């Protein structure tokens, strides 16, 4: 699972969801893998305002990944300044900036293959195997 | 606005206008349907330009192509008059272009010689360029629309080709017969692509399927440019079991393998195992700022609970303290199976809509398949939610049942009166037996038993000595 999915995932236990500590889930004993993916500027631009920046920064820290900037980039930060100045409307001609490349690397190329995702509120652990996290709740937690 | 002729495939008729409108919306183009009939492949529309026409049709699954309309009429005399009136000013543009000129008939047609004569009857346009079947500069076509078993066509069109759609290529490429990993519930590829179009999939968007199975919908969405992810209550369907529904195929096959097969892995975020009614996705009430919608669309084919009753996580009865303790003691042991309880399809539909409301961005779409029936008895009501606008209903009919594709638009906050969301919190029915809970399932098996007894009766009448006939077809159950 690519790291971006952690931007959407929280604890599956209903009563836990209202507790702010249930988001984000914390990777533990995580085995990471880089899987190269095509750069997708329109997607980065679209998803940017939906990123929970503080939480993502925290996760990167926990995983020992390069630190994300303190404040979220703006859409303009995603393209090379020179091109942005020329104001080319053609999406194909846009040159992704280093910021875009870094973001792409972290969100769309870094994958959790094995390990656990732990709820910060109830401490329930969700196992990740072969890149697939399991959120099925045991009988006593439904 | 100029008129164009859309040449539809004569298939999935009730989806055609809906797809066309969705594609126009995605392209940001104003489209107006001038003439359309369910039993004809020819539809006339208004579009602002050739570029707009090309954009709309390029991605279409149910249109084969689009033509600039150069003439129409109910006889050849009328057609030629119309061609003079509408298009005479355009002829000179193509005077020296290489060209192709073809004649097609729907439910009828002509011999090659007759076609030759038809083509010659357009000689007044005075094209001097070389005829060329492959890659000509311009292609013209005469369309003849016949009534069944009538010799003369009832209507004629003449047009200049603007664009062909991706229909044939996409159907061929995504054909389930050639997909590495499928299961008995895999949705037909043409319908997954069609669903993606109707759900407004577009490059840069984020789409999710909560019942992904072998990934048919996410693959279709990724093909049209979306970034996708999915989940399923059954982890084996995501990871693969080392087998395939296809006979004789062994080895490790899984959803990610399908994405690799189509070179779409870049657009696949991954999948997780979960129950929709206990989703790990963020679904807090939208008044909390952190939970504004984040999905551009949801596409799915939820479980109907036909063959096996519909199940969600939970226990039939409230657990005793000792039982709770034993779950707690055992859940980390490999092989532990979380308990499941029967659930009603109607309640699941309500849950899906509530989930969509909590996760979709404003104007985001959810497209979901659900069974209906031709039989008045079985009609399942179309679920509704005040924060969702039902934008289209398409029907696919089979012999003994039919299903619908429902598409809703997430209303903007400004469209929804305050307090609406709180008012919809529903008390879901609680029950113990799947057959009581699921009307469709009960009716289905009733119909099945009636069929069985009819067959027995038939066999008896024919005085056959033995009933070797557990013939009631698995095929019907499956689809
Ligand atoms: C009709 S199939 C969808 C097939 C899929 N469209 C495909 O092309 O492979 C329904 C799927 O829903 C899953 N399912 C059943 N109950 C579920 C639940 N409560 N939550 C999530 N998924 C569930 C089943 O395991 C099954 O894979
Ligand atoms: Zn929790």
Automatic annotation (TrEMBL), chain A:
Organism this protein belongs to: Clathrospora elynae
Pfam families membership: Trm112p
Name of the protein in its database record: Trm112p-domain-containing protein
Family named by the database record: Belongs to the TRM112 family.
Transmembrane segments: none
Cross-referenced Gene3D superfamilies: 2.20.25.10
GO process terms (BP): rRNA (guanine-N7)-methylation; tRNA methylation
Disordered: annotated segments: 71-99
InterPro entries reported for this sequence: Trm112 (IPR039127), Trm112-like (IPR005651)
A molecular function GO annotation: protein heterodimerization activity
TrEMBL record, chain B:
InterPro entries listed in its UniProt record: DNA_methylase_N6_adenine_CS, RlmKL-like_Mtase, SAM-dependent_MTases_sf, TRMT11, TRMT11_N
An example Gene Ontology molecular-function term: tRNA (guanine(10)-N2)-methyltransferase activity
Every tRNA (guanine(10)-N(2))-methyltransferase TRMT11 N-terminal domain range: 3-167
Annotated ranges, domain Ribosomal RNA large subunit methyltransferase K/L-like methyltransferase: 179-309
This protein's UniProt keywords: Cytoplasm, Methyltransferase, RNA-binding, S-adenosyl-L-methionine, Transferase, tRNA processing, tRNA-binding
Cellular component annotations (GO), alphabetically ordered: cytoplasm; tRNA methyltransferase complex
EC number: 2.1.1.214
Subcellular location: Cytoplasm
Class of this enzyme: transferase
Sequence similarity: Belongs to the class I-like SAM-binding methyltransferase superfamily. TRM11 methyltransferase family.
Protein name as catalogued: tRNA (guanine(10)-N(2))-methyltransferase
């Amino acid at each position: 699972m690519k790291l971006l999915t952690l931007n959407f995932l929280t604890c599956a236990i209903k009563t836990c969801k209202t507790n702010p500590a249930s988001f984000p889930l914390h990777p533990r004993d995580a085995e990471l893998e880089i899987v190269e993916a095509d750069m997708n500027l329109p997607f980065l631009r679209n998803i940017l305002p939906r990123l929970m920046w503080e939480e993502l920064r925290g996760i990167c820290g926990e995983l020992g990944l390069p630190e994300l900037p303190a404040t979220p980039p703006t859409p303009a930060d995603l393209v090379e300044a020179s091109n942005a100045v020329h104001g080319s409307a053609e999406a194909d001609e846009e040159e992704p900036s280093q910021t875009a490349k870094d973001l792409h690397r972290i969100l769309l190329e870094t994958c959790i293959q094995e390990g656990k995702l732990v709820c910060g509120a109830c401490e329930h652990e969700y196992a990740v195997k072969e890149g697939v996290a399991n959120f099925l709740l045991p009988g006593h937690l439904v | 606005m100029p008129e164009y002729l859309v040449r539809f495939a004569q298939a999935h008729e009730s989806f055609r206008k809906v797809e066309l409108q969705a594609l126009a919306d995605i392209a940001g183009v104003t489209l107006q349907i001038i003439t359309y009939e369910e039993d004809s492949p020819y539809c006339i529309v208004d579009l602002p330009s050739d570029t707009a026409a090309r954009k709309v049709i390029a991605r279409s699954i149910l249109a084969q192509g689009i033509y600039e309309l150069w003439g129409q009429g109910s006889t050849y005399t009328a057609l030629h008059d119309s061609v003079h009136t509408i298009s005479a000013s355009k002829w000179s543009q193509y005077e020296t272009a290489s060209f192709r000129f073809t004649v097609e008939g729907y439910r009828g047609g002509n011999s090659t010689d007759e076609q030759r004569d038809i083509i010659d009857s357009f000689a007044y346009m005075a094209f001097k360029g070389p005829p060329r079947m492959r890659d000509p500069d311009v292609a013209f076509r005469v369309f003849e629309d016949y009534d069944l078993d009538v010799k003369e066509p009832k209507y004629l069109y003449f047009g200049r080709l603007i664009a062909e759609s991706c229909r044939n290529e996409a159907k061929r490429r995504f054909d389930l017969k050639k997909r590495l990993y499928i299961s008995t519930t895999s949705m037909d590829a043409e319908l997954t692509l069609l669903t993606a179009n109707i759900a407004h999939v577009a490059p840069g968007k984020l789409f999710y399927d909560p019942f992904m199975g072998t990934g048919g919908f996410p693959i279709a969405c990724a093909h049209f440019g979306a970034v996708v992810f999915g989940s399923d209550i059954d982890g084996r369907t995501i990871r693969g079991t080392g087998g395939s529904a296809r006979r004789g195929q062994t080895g490790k096959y899984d959803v990610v393998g399908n994405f690799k097969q189509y070179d779409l892995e870049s657009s696949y975020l991954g999948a997780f195992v979960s129950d929709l009614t206990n989703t790990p996705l963020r679904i807090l009430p939208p008044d909390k700022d952190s939970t504004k919608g984040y999905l551009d669309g949801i596409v799915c084919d939820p479980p109907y609970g036909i063959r096996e009753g519909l199940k969600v996580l939970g226990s039939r009865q409230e657990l005793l303290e000792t039982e709770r303790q034993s779950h707690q003691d055992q859940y980390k042991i490999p092989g532990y199976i979380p308990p499941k309880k029967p659930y009603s399809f109607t309640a699941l539909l309500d849950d899906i809509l509530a989930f969509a409301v909590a996760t979709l961005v404003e104007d985001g779409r959810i497209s979901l398949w659900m069974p209906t029936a031709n039989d008045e008895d079985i009609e399942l009501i179309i679920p509704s939610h005040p924060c969702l606008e039902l934008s289209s209903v398409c029907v696919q009919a089979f012999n003994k049942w039919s299903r619908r594709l429902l598409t809703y638009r997430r209303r903007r906050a400004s469209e929804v009166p305050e307090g609406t969301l709180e008012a919809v919190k529903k008390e879901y029915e609680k029950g113990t037996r799947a057959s009581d809970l699921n009307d469709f399932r009960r009716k289905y098996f009733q119909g099945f038993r009636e069929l069985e007894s009819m067959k027995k009766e038939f066999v008896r009448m024919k005085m056959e000595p033995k009933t070797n006939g557990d013939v009631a077809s698995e095929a019907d159950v499956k689809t």
